Each structure stands twice: as structure tokens, then as C-alpha cells.
Amino acid sequence: MRRAPRPGDLAFAVAGLPVALLCGAYALVVLYAGALLSLTVLGLPVVALGLRGARALGAFHRRLAGRLLGAHVEQPEPPARAGAPLAWCRAVLTDPVGWRSLLYLLLRLPLGVLAFAAAVALPLGGGWLAGFPLWVRLLEPGDRPGGWLDVTAVLLGLALLAAVSPTLHAWSGVERRLARALLGPARTQGRLRQLETARSTLLAENTDRLRRLERDLHDGTQAQLVALAITLSLADDALEPGAPDVTRLRTLVDRARRQTDDTIADLRSLTRGLHPVALDGGLGEALPGLTATSPVPVTLCLDLGARPDPAIERTVYFCAAELLTNIAKHSAATAASLELTATADRVRLSVHDDGRGGVDLVDDGADSTGGGPRGQDGGSGLAGLRERLAAVDGVLRVVSPPGGPTTVTAELPARL
């Protein structure tokens, strides 16, 4: 069923006409004056002033679209600050937001007229045609038999009245898309902002990881090595000249062996998250070992046409490990599959399971396997994987209807 237009859609179509006429005329004057004065020294300053005004009018339209149309348009980057007049003109003339706002004002001129026609002229015309037999009889007193013209007018009027709501709704959708496309930040700016946020998050995560590693080395491994040194010192004291205490010496050697094993195990645990040793031979050697240790049977399919960069390999490996861990912990799946395709340009990782599904990528509180608790700190779960992938310009997609199955796909470039 087609959704009815919002009350703000009608208000935007009616009240937006004078605004569209005034702003469209402003944009035409700016372009005409700039072209007319382009051969003089006043041309560029006039265009710069016009672009700064277009930017301000774009901000007004952005608020108007948000209030009436319910279109959330992100605020673009603020204009660059420049002190000298020449530097100010250069900054304004190279500002993409100003040019895109000017284009929006130009396009709003015909769109505003058409929207007003859909909101006002269409229902008035439909009402007049639907009542055509009545108007004719009021204007021409006397007996007038009905004919095919009356029937056609009534049917056409009813059709126009029925088309008012869907036409206004569709036109409001066009207005929303136009506002988001031209009044928000440019796609490159939005992508740059996303990458900056992802890299900042990843940098903070790595800093926190290094601090934990330093603390674990200081409080754990260093203490174990000190205890091992004390044990060896006691063993050295047990080797008294002439009459060594063999029983005590054997006890101390056994203790030193256990302490050495514990220290080696802790060091392996601490360094496992830095660079997996299995990746020395590439993903073709690392992923089979990873899937072999999964409690859920995993079918592995590899198509490695080219070896990605080391940073990409680490990202893919950790994503695969996290997804398989989440499947084992939360999905209640009985089987899973992992597919990896690597070309010279792109790497695509797809993990599928037959679990209960219901995964929501937007819900940061949900895990990647249907509503279970998130794993570790900020670096785990789908939110952590999405941030890790965004840091290398990758994307994460999830298809997980309630009841399953779940398919998580990660795509990222093969080269940084």
C-alpha cells in the first residue's frame, strides 16, 4: 500500500513556491552577473559573494527540508577561513558546498513550480472536472441531457483527485533526495570523514591494546621471570660443594620448568593478537588452520588469485576469526562455510551459518550471531569489525533474517 504524504509535504509544496522563485532568481542573477562581469576585475568577487550567499540559502533549505519533509541532511564542512580578500575569494570559489548549493537553488525553481502544481493545481483541476456536469448546468439554465462529455469529465476528475496523494508523495521523495545529494557534505567529504573517524577509533583501540600489553608484561610476565630467577638462585644454593641436596634440587628444577612453560604460554597469548604466526605463509595457509579449530564444522572455499597486502591479510584473518568465534558462541549453528576470493584489486570474505539469525548491523548491542552479547571490548562484535574494515576502506554487509541463515560479507581493497 502506498504511504500517504506527510502534512509537511503539502506545506513544503505550497510554501516552497515563493521561496523557490526568489532563490532561483537569486541563482540566475549570480550566474548572469558573474558571466557579464567575467571580463572585468569585479567578476570573481561578485561570483564569490553569490556563492557565499548560496551557501547560506542552502543552510536555510536544509533546515526547511528537515522540519517539513523530515529529511535528515548532514551539515557540510564549514567554510574555510581566510583573512586577505584574495585568499577569501579563492577559498569561496573553490568551495564545493557553495557551488552545489547554487545548483540546488537552480533546480528548486522548476521543482517548486511542479510541486505547487501537484499540491494545488492538480486537486483544483480534478475537483473542477469531477463537478463539470454541475458547473455546466449552473452556467446554462434549462434542461441539458447528460452525455459522454459529462461522464468523461467526471472520470478524469476522479482520476486526478486519486493521483494527488501518490504524486505529492513521490515528488516529496524527489525533494528529499535532492536535498541530501546537494545540501549535505559531498560524497568525498563524507567518505573522508568516515575514514578519519574509523582511523581515530582504530588508533585509540591500538593504543589501549598496547597499554594492556605493557601492563600484562609488567605485572604478569615480568613477575614470572623474577620468580623463575629466584627459583634458579635457590637451585644454585642447593648445589653445595661436597653434599648437594638432590631432592630439594629436583623440586626446584621441576618448579623452574613449570614456571618456564607458564611464561612461554603467557608470551604466546600476549603476542597472538599482534601478528599471527600462521599468516607468515599467507591466508591460504592460515585460514585452513583457523577453520580446523572451530567447534562448528566449517566448509572452506579459497580462490586466491593474488596475495593482498600484509595489513589486509591481518584484517581478513581477524575478521574470519571473530565471525567463526561468534558463530560457535551465539548462533546455535550446526554448520558453517567460509569463502574467500582475492584478486589483484579486491578481497571478499563471506561467512555463512545455519544458525538462528536475527542479526542487526545497526544494533550495536547485538552480536554477529543473532542477538547474543557482544564479545570483548570495542574491537569485537559487528561494530568492531565494521570499524576495523572502515579503517582500510572496507565495508561490511549482513543478511540475517529471523530464524536464519546468516551471511556476513566483508569487502576490502587488496592494496592500501
Quick tags:
11 helices, single chain, 416 residues, elongated, five-stranded mixed sheet
In DSSP terms (H or I, runs of 4 or more residues), the helix count works out at 11
Mean pLDDT: 79
CA radius of gyration is: 35 Å
Parts with pLDDT < 50 across at least 5 consecutive residues: 363-380
How many runs of DSSP E, i.e. beta strands?
A: 5
Distance between the termini: 46 Å
Strand order of the largest sheet: 1-2-3-5-4
Strand residue percentage: 5-15%
- Secondary-structure element string: HHHHHHHHHEHEEHEE
- Report the major sheet: 5 strands, mixed
The portion of residues assigned to helices is 55-70%
Class from helix and strand fractions: alpha+beta
Judging from the principal axes of the Cα atoms, what is the shape?
A: elongated
Please describe what this structure looks like.
With 416 residues, this protein is α+β, with helices and mostly antiparallel strands. 63% of the residues lie in helices and 8% in strands. The protein has eleven helices and five strands, in the order H-H-H-H-H-H-H-H-H-E-H-E-E-H-E-E. It has a five-stranded mixed β-sheet, with helices on one face. Strand 4 (395-399) and strand 5 (406-413) form a beta hairpin. The radius of gyration is 35 Å and the shape is elongated.
Topology:
Elements lengths: L6 H30 L6 H27 L15 H9 L2 H35 L1 H8 L8 H35 L4 H52 L7 H26 L11 H10 L5 E7 L5 H22 L4 E7 L3 E8 L27 H10 L4 E5 L6 E8 L3
Parallel strand pairs: 1-2
Antiparallel strand pairs: 2-3, 3-5, 4-5
